[in-house]
Amino acid sequence: MDSRVWIDVLVFLIAGASFPMVNVAVSRLLRRDWREPSKLTTYETGIRPYGDARVRYSIHYYIFALIFLVFDVEVVFFYPWAVQFRELAQMGPFAFVEMALFIVMLAVGLIYAWKKKVLRWA
């Protein structure tokens, strides 16, 4: 193998490692160096925080959020399938059957959550 390839890799490695360090050093040199008391508070708008930051939430909130996340992530699987549907349809019914099974599994999960009354907010 030619050693010039490794020289290119070494140059990119050094450039990649030094780029953030140079940017941090330059930003430290160019920043304003006075501290405002409002910048040290939780909210930089100047609004005084009140109460404890650790507030208890209902467990329903987490379960509801988890179910939302599951059904939101399914879009990640639907989109490429929908984009390539015509090409996949030419190969046979396998892609359609596979997505139908996926939708059925999601529907079974939704029905299970509905039966367990997870989707009720109160």
UniProtKB/TrEMBL annotation:
Zinc among keywords: no
Pfam families for the chain: Oxidored_q4 (PF00507)
Function: NDH-1 shuttles electrons from NADH, via FMN and iron-sulfur (Fe-S) centers, to quinones in the respiratory chain. The immediate electron acceptor for the enzyme in this species is believed to be a menaquinone. Couples the redox reaction to proton translocation (for every two electrons transferred, four hydrogen ions are translocated across the cytoplasmic membrane), and thus conserves the redox energy in a proton gradient.
Localisation per UniProt entry: Cell membrane; Membrane
Annotated membrane topology: Multi-pass membrane protein
Family: Belongs to the complex I subunit 3 family.
Gene from which this protein is expressed: nuoA
Record-level GO cellular component terms: NADH dehydrogenase complex; plasma membrane
Name of this chain's protein: NADH-quinone oxidoreductase subunit A
Alphabetical UniProt keywords: Cell membrane, Membrane, NAD, Oxidoreductase, Quinone, Translocase, Transmembrane, Transmembrane helix, Transport
Enzyme Commission numbers on file: 7.1.1.-
Organism encoding this protein: Thermaerobacter marianensis (strain ATCC 700841 / DSM 12885 / JCM 10246 / 7p75a)
Entry's transmembrane regions: 6-26, 61-82, 94-114
Catalytic activity: a quinone + NADH + 5 H(+)(in) = a quinol + NAD(+) + 4 H(+)(out)
